[in-house]
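Hey forum,

I'm writing up a methods section and want to include a predicted complex as supplementary material. The small molecule is zinc ion. I've pasted the protein sequence and the SMILES. Can someone with a working setup run it? I'll credit the forum in the acknowledgements.
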Amino acid sequence: MAEIIRINDRISYIKASNKPLSADVGMIEGDGYLWLFDLGADESVSEVINGINKQKIAVISHFHPDHMGNLDKIDLKEIFLGANTFGYAGRGNIVENDVFTDDGVKIHIFPLPSSHAKGSVGMEIGEYAFLGDATYATMKKGKVCYNASVLKEEITVLKKLSARYFLLSHNEKFIKSREEVIAGLEEIYSKRDPKEAYIFV
Ligand SMILES: [Zn+2]
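Reply by user p_vandermeer:
Happy to help. Structure tokens for the complex are below, copy them as they are.
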């Protein structure tokens, strides 16, 4: 059975799994709603969430099945997602600009440029920012790489966040310091060849 791991009085998460491949699922207890960051794909995750007696709102980081596989298994009052993810989900509010809302906790939903998946979305709650897989690379011609201009935009967006901790899905160390994540991406960006669109890592 999926286990809920608590971060603070409002924020907790269900850890990612490999079999089936299922992303970390963030859970934020608002005064009115349970806010979910990603839905995972593991059935036991949807069972745990459905067992919580509160209306749910989901923010889906990107369209990959390990992040939204449970979409039709969880009753959602509202969904926030990127335009590309909307193409797969077929419903929800498309996040094109920053969304700020207050549900007893201040919630910030934002578009996050990403080499990993076009139209990624992140979510910031106080000290913590859920980033999904947005800081990860993609594959071109069988090689792992970042799109240089997208990476630059991504670093700019991340630097504007006020959260001290960045939460990266599938990572053994789920909670990382913002400095560590930004420094890692800046190091990759520093290796770019100005003549090339992609940085192979
Ligand atoms: Zn993933």
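Some notes you might quote in the supplement: Residues 23, 64, 66-67, 133, 169-170 surround zinc ion (CB under 6 Å). The longest helix spans residues 148-160.
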